[in-house]
Predict the 3D structure of the following.
Amino acid sequence: HRIGRTGRAQATGDAFTLVTEDDVRDARSIERFIGATIERKKIEDFPYIYSALFDEKALAEAAPPPKPKSRLMRGSR
């Protein structure tokens, strides 16, 4: 909400997204869509229970499988 308001005002700012265990796959999908890795920052002294966001192996396992390529039939055989 705030980042949209900032952008419409043609101002600059920072956007923060808090990601939970349930959001890991969605976060990876967003990264694939934008073609970039979103910077991760660990909050000091926060009592993390799930920390896959900071573990590259766990992130790779959380990534959804690639979509199959469609096989469009063009013309007749």
Remarks:
- The chain has a mean pLDDT of 74.
- Helices lie at 2-8, 24-34, 56-62.
- The two ends are 53 Å apart (CA to CA).
